[in-house]
Write a structure and sequence with these properties.
The chain is of the alpha/beta class. The chain has helices spanning 37-47, 110-117, 137-144, 148-152, 164-176, 189-211, 219-304, 328-392, 399-433, 447-461, 491-512, 527-530, 542-554, 572-578; strands spanning 3-11, 18-21, 26-30, 65-72, 75-82, 85-95, 101-105, 124-128, 131-134, 145-146, 470-473, 478-481, 484-485, 519-523, 561-566, 581-582. The chain has 14 helices and 16 strands.
Length: 599
């Protein structure tokens, strides 16, 4: 994923449009100083999220807005920002079938847009040895939008200050395509202070734990004593379980005997109740038999009496009662009925006597059975009592005392364990606090060789054929030319060598699909080398470098887009190939004066 710059436009009320169209894959904007070449780079920096507003000068008066059109994959975006400041507005441009251009503002910051289309979304870079953060638009702008002061600066390529670490991390991301998410962070001062506080707290806890530890006693002794107590308790438990098992069998038998006794006594009570009922019934039968016998005797006596008249009124006996009652046969019938009733009662009493005898036998038998159950139950209860009393004196130790002792020993053992834990924690915290700072050395593999080879090929193409070796110092993010660091050369060569490095990094990253914006903007790579006041050794003629540089740029086919802002003249045959945008300045007769039209 890369970005291509399409056009830069400045607009204002009642002002003619100031436009620069960028060619792909290479654009040269050429002209004398003070025509607005560096201003183009400043506008790009500003529109791509930079904080520094563009300069104000006479020609820019009345222009209030800048717009940059870019293409990312299949999408086209317009980045618009006011000269006065504010955020950059991001809009997606679409073209209909009939050629009408639509513009839709999207909710995405320009920094996020750059990072996403550079292929660096979600990647993490070191901001310091103790902090990590996501890739930002500033990480990209620093390496790909080079100002004239950057080109001749004697400062490290990553710059100086708090952002240098993050810029170095971004440079390695371009080289390898990997980020810093796997690099272990070191502790910050705040984290070290926090660790110191944790150590103090742990040491105070250790003092409290040690204050509760028994004197002249080791953990091994406490553990051994606890083991002996556990053995005694386990032995007691095993013994009590065995005793409980024996008691359970006795108590099961007691339960059975109790149930049988209860059932036998219930049956006995029932039988005794039946005997009483049978005896009462026999008494009733006996009473009925005696009453019938008395009636029988009364009838016999009546029959033996003589008939006499009523002593009071003298009425004859045959006149007063029912005559039928006085006939001889009537009393006989009455006596026969009494006899039958008496015989019936006799039969009933005989059957009742048999039932009573059977029930009395059952009562006697149940009394014997109940007595047997009582005796057996008493024997079992005696056995139970004997076994319970035996268990009481089996052990000399008291289970309750042993349980208390075990609790005490367990607490002491836990304190010893707390002491060991706190000591280990304190040691770990101290090791973390004393952790030495290790030098960070990222492995870039053969990427440094490939980038150096690209840079060497470019410099040879630009006329520096005398260069024998070029190395890339990945830690310094800079080149070493024939054993000499780039920053040790004069300003002219520093600028040209930095241009070679910047383009080489782009070619390497884009060709490998690593994160990169896909374009570079370089302001005045040749100007310092052409400075007549410069006293540095020009081992290659200025004209040679200029002509070969422009010719090489005209033949550039990628990967990536190159935009060069330069002062040096260009040969006509190369101009025809490169088709540069030329500013003529105030002294020119024909052509565009500068970035802004002159009224």
């Amino acid at each position: 994923m890369t970005i291509k710059l399409i056009s830069l436009v400045a607009t204002g009320p009642d002002k003619p449009e100031a436009r620069v169209n960028f060619r792909i894959p290479a654009t040269l904007v050429r002209g004398p100083s003070e025509t607005g070449k560096s201003y183009i780079r400043d506008c790009l920096w500003y529109l791509l999220g930079g904080d520094k507003p563009t300069k104000k000068f006479r020609e820019s008066a009345g222009y209030d807005s800048l717009a940059l059109t870019i293409k990312a994959e299949e999408d086209t975006y317009e980045l618009r920002r006011a000269h006065a400041g504010g955020d950059t507005e991001v809009a997606c441009l679409t073209t209909s079938v009939d050629g009408e251009v639509g513009r839709e503002v999207i909710d995405e910051e320009v920094s996020a847009l750059l990072v996403r289309n550079a292929g660096a979304k979600g990647m993490q870079l070191l901001r310091s040895r103790s902090k990590r953060g996501g890739v930002t638009g500033g990480d990209l702008r620093h390496w790909f939008l080079l100002s004239q002061p950057n080109m001749i600066s004697e400062d490290p390529t990553a710059g100086v200050g708090t952002n240098a670490t993050q810029r170095v991390a971004a440079f390695h991301m371009f080289l390898t395509g990997t980020d810093d998410s796997a690099i272990a962070l070191i502790k910050t001062s705040k984290e070290l202070d926090h660790i110191a506080g944790q150590i103090t707290g742990a040491e105070q806890s250790l003092s409290r734990v040690r204050a509760d530890l028994p004197t002249n006693t080791t953990r091994e002794e406490v553990a051994s004593a606890l083991e002996r107590v556990d053995e005694a308790l386990n032995a007691m438990t095993s013994h009590y379980e065995a005793r409980a098992s024996l008691l359970k069998s006795v108590r099961d038998e007691i339960l059975v005997e109790s149930e049988q006794l209860k059932r036998a006594e219930g049956e006995l009570t029932h039988s005794l109740a039946m005997v009483k009922r049978f005896q009462l019934l026999d008494e009733k039968y006996k009473s009925d038999s005696e009453r019938l016998g008395a009636t029988w005797e009364g009838v016999s006596m009546f029959q033996a009496l003589e008939e006499v008249s009523c002593p009071l009124c003298g009425t004859a006996s045959d006149v007063q009662p029912d005559p039928r009652q006085l006939r001889q046969g009537a009393q006989d019938n009455y006596r026969r009925a009494l006899k039958a009733e008496i015989e019936k009662i006799v039969v009933l009493r005989k059957g009742l006597a048999e039932a009573l005898e059977h029930e009395q036998f059952r009562v006697a038998r149940l009394r014997v059975v109940s007595q047997g159950h009582r005796q057996k139950l008493a024997d079992l209860e005696q056995i139970e009592k004997s076994r319970v009393n035996t268990a009481k004196y089996e052990f000399s130790g008291d289970p309750k005392s042993l349980a208390f002792r075990r609790s005490e020993l367990s607490e002491q053992l836990a304190r010893f364990d707390d002491e060991a834990r706190l000591l280990a924690e304190i040691e770990k915290l101290k090791q973390g606090k004393k952790r030495p700072k290790t030098m960070l050395s990222r492995d870039v593999g053969d990427a440094s060789i490939k980038v150096a080879d690209y840079a060497k090929a470019y410099l040879h193409a630009w006329g520096f054929t005398g260069i024998q070796s070029i190395l890339l110092n990945s830690e310094a993010c800079d080149l070493i030319i024939d054993g000499q660091a780039r920053l040790d050369f004069g300003a002219g060569k520093r600028a040209i060598f930095l241009a070679a490095l910047t383009i080489a990094v782009m070619a390497h990253a884009v060709s490998n699909g690593y994160p990169h914006l896909g374009f570079v903007v370089i302001d005045s790579p040749l100007k310092s080398y052409a400075d007549p006041k410069s006293k540095e050794n020009r081992d290659v003629a200025l004209s040679t470098v200029t002509d070969r540089f422009y010719k090489w740029l005209a033949q550039w086919e990628g990967p990536g887009q190159i935009i060069i802002l330069e002062n040096q003249e260009i040969q006509e045959e190369v101009k025809a190939l490169l088709e540069p945008l030329e500013f003529v300045g105030d002294g020119g007769d024909e052509g565009r004066r500068g970035f802004y039209p002159i009224d």
